[in-house]
Amino acid sequence: MQTIWLGGAEWLAVLRIGLGLWWLESWRHKDKKTWFKGGGITWAAGIAAKHRWPVVRRGFDRLVKPRPRAMAYLVAYAELALGLGLIAGLLTPVALIAGAVLNLIYLVLMIHDWAEQGQNLMMALISVTALAAMSWQSWSLDHAFGLFL
């Protein structure tokens, strides 16, 4: 494949690294003090309580609501780990799958908010594309260590 400046594998690495930067920005812009006190989970609980699908309400009430602090830490540090992993290209397929799953969870929770849907759909699409195209073949620790050949 002929491209200007970079080859196909390098452009896929750019896509992967850009997605990692997007996850890092998602982590960076959180008000950590409020978030870790459960503020983010309280906000999400309000959305889940009014959700049009009963399964989402029940699932949130059973899994997330009883553990607001733990879930706040899990979400925030998952976003940080995804960002760092994708930028460095470490365990890239795992990070891409985990990121797509997290985006799908956000997508289902925020099904009524079209602004959020655009971001989550775009990030999930990039994750699937980067996974299918094996974006860890260039500029990654996975490639340097010979992982996922």
Walk me through this protein's architecture.
There is one protein chain. Helix 1 runs antiparallel to helix 7, helix 5 packs across helix 6 and helix 6 packs antiparallel against helix 7. The radius of gyration is 17 Å and the shape is elongated. The protein has one domain. It has helices at residues 8-28, 32-36, 39-49, 54-64, 68-88, 92-109, 114-132, 141-145. The chain is built from eight helices and no strands.
Shape descriptor: elongated
Q: Strand portion, in percent?
A: under 5%
From the N-terminal CA to the C-terminal CA, the straight-line distance is 20 Å
- Cα radius of gyration in angstroms: 17 Å
**Major pleated sheet:** none
Number of strands: 0
SSE order: HHHHHHHH
Total number of domains: 1
Mean pLDDT across all residues, rounded?
A: 93
DSSP summary: helix tally: 8
Report the structural category: mainly alpha
Query: Are there runs of 5+ residues with pLDDT below 50, and where?
Result: none
- Helix content percent band: over 70%
Blueprint (SSEs and pairs):
Elements: H1 8-28, H2 32-36, H3 39-49, H4 54-64, H5 68-88, H6 92-109, H7 114-132, H8 141-145
Short summary of the structure?
Keywords: Membrane, Transmembrane, Transmembrane helix. This protein has eight helices and no strands.
